[in-house]
Design brief:
single chain, alpha/beta, 8-stranded parallel barrel, 4-stranded antiparallel sheet, 13 helices, 17% strand, elongated
């Protein structure tokens, strides 16, 4: 039996495989094979802990970061022996980091999950959740499992998902990440996970059982009729900007990162660097990562964080190579593919421009529905969003993922309780997070014991949720919004591994939760993946909606009745009564 180690480092002068037995390190020189370095070792090496070291020129201004003192994580690692912990020494040339960097672990042979169609189909309900925050305080999850991927397979969790008719859970990042360097001095840590290092290595804190734990959890959810979508971060890595750590790609193949004409790192992600998908090697690593999670865990699909980056080279192109490569791949072509269709770079907002079989997060739905219920939106725009946003996606099968709140921004309950962000706990003097949330507080900022305020807020939440469940397209609900979870007005809780970020199951609003269950049951019976064009828009009193009424400021609402027997749909949106009726 022979184990082959292979790593890409085209500009290195030398590369060593470093194996560890406890703290003892054994270095073995590798041989160049084109742009790769290769080493074959005899024997059964499953369980071996290892990393790489690379030697060459140190010239960061030219993208050369070779420093044999830096232990480097295998970009294709599948398992790590521990979590990443940030340390300033990771950025210091000549400082040995073997004691600081997690070691990759050679996996045993991995069985493949039998191929099957995705459990999710467009028009269903996606339930976005943070693995740790979702079960950290769950009373019916064994304490040892709380905060882990395995907790999602617990009967109480599955029962809750089924009660909401969830079509698929969307797991916020479960790949190992590192804290941004400003967080440890503040006593904070990255809670969301959007700062990965190697794209296949599961986080040992969230998924201590590795790929086996993920595979078994996916199987349990599949048995309950629930698909699994992974939120994948392929747009940047946790190596950050010029002052960031040397952990992985930076010390092996910095050409993976996009640079401008002056050799400066491009920062279209806002995270310090941007992976360059014009490079075939970057795309190959991304595709191998996706295949891995399909082959060895059986996931149904992926949500791509800042997906515009995947199609940059440097400008966005709807004909970017990555799209054709995914479509041609037999393991990926039928998967659920969801784009977050923007980044912060030039021309970064690309809603509606992804391939026809991709779904896209539709922030215009969120914003326009919030404006309507806040009182400064019009019925014509609301109707367009309810009918599937054909102004964005055209008249073909609806590709919109409609949502009212997500991990980033106010929770749904906070949207009707706070006009302003309250992010003081993040240590950035309340300057982080979005300043304009299209929110309203119903007369009092934050918590209130006033019954009238509470009643108005609950009516607003029910109206917002009714609008979501009446809409055409796929819908997304963030965990806890079905029962009024709050983040205390924090609209950027990425660093709040604390009660701010954890779901408080003991304080659920059971009335709101029952309302959502009824909405979900009604929608599940006839999911509107496509709007029934054979129908009639009406006023709230039942008359046909005249052209002039669409343009009436502060119109009280609108109703729709389908005449298509194959697509039955009837709803009424009443702004004055703060009510949505769905028949």
């Amino acid at each position: 039996m022979t184990a082959t180690f292979r790593v890409r480092a085209p500009r290195a002068r030398a590369v060593w495989l470093c194996r560890f037995d406890g703290q003892a390190e054994t270095r073995t020189a590798m041989a160049r094979d084109g742009d790769d370095w290769v080493l074959d070792l005899p024997g059964e090496l499953a369980g071996t802990r290892y990393g790489y070291r690379a030697d060459g020129e140190w010239a960061p201004e030219r993208g050369l970061w070779f420093d044999p003192a830096k232990l480097l994580v295998d970009p294709r690692a599948i398992e790590l022996d521990r979590r990443f912990v940030y340390d300033p020494a990771l950025s210091v040339h000549g400082a040995d980091t073997a004691a600081l960097v997690p070691k990759a672990v050679v996996p045993p042979p991995l069985p493949e999950v039998p191929r099957a169609p995705p459990r999710f189909t467009p028009g269903g309900l996606i339930y976005e959740l943070n693995v740790r925050g979702f079960t950290r305080l769950h009373p019916d999850v064994p304490e040892a499992r709380r905060g882990t991927v395995a907790a999602l397979a617990e009967p109480a969790v599955i029962a809750h998902l089924q009660s909401l008719h969830v079509s698929a859970v969307e797991l916020m990042p479960v790949v190992a990440w590192i804290d941004e360097r400003h967080l440890p001095p503040l006593g904070l840590s990255n809670f969301w996970g959007y700062n990965p290092v190697a794209p296949m290595a599961l986080d040992p804190g969230l998924c201590p059982g590795g790929i086996v734990e993920l595979r078994e959890t996916v199987a349990a959810l599949h048995a309950a009729g629930i698909g699994v979508i992974l939120d994948i971060v392929l747009n940047h890595t946790g190596e950050s900007d010029m002052f960031g750590p040397v952990l992985c790609l930076r010390g092996l193949d910095d050409a993976a990162y996009a640079r401008d004409g002056q050799r400066r790192l491009i920062n279209d992600t806002g995270c310090g660097n941007t992976l360059d998908f014009a490079q075939p090697a970057v795309r190959a690593l991304a595709l191998d990562s996706l295949r891995h999670f399909v082959r060895h865990a059986g996931v149904d699909g992926f949500r791509f964080d800042l997906a515009t980056v995947l199609a940059r080279g440097p400008a966005f192109s709807p004909a970017a190579p990555i799209f054709a490569e995914i479509a041609a791949d037999p393991r990926l072509a039928d998967r659920v593919l969801i784009a977050e269709p923007w980044d912060i770079g030039p021309g970064g907002y690309q809603l509606g421009r992804f391939p026809p079989h991709w779904l896209e997060w539709n922030d215009r739905f969120r914003d326009d529905v919030r404006r309507f219920w806040r009182g400064d939106g019009d019925v014509a725009t609301l109707a367009t969003r309810l009918a599937g946003s054909a102004d964005v996606f055209g008249e073909q099968a609806c590709r919109s993922v409609n949502f009212l709140a997500a991990h980033d921004g106010f929770t749904l309950a906070d949207t009707v309780a706070y006009e302003h962000r309250h992010n003081w706990a993040n240590g950035e003097h309340n300057r982080d997070g979005h300043g304009d949330n299209l929110s309203w507080n119903n007369g009092i900022e934050g918590p209130s014991d006033d019954p009238a305020v509470a009643a108005r807020r609950r009516a607003d939440l029910k109206a917002l949720l009714g609008t979501l469940f009446a809409s055409t397209g796929t819908i997304l609900l963030t965990a806890g919004d079905e029962f009024g979870r709050s983040q205390q007005g924090n609209n950027n809780a990425y660093c709040q591994d604390s009660p701010i970020g954890w779901i408080d199951w003991a304080r659920r609003d059971s009335d709101l939760e029952d309302h959502v269950r009824r909405l979900a049951a009604r929608r599940a019976a006839r999911p509107p993946a496509q709007f029934p064009r054979a129908g009639e828009w009406r006023t709230l009193t039942g008359e046909p909606m005249a052209e002039a009424l669409w343009d009436t400021p502060n119109a009280p609402g609108v109703a729709y009745v389908s005449n298509d027997a194959a697509r039955p749909l009837a709803f009424a949106v009443d702004r004055a009564a703060r009510r949505v009726s769905i028949d």
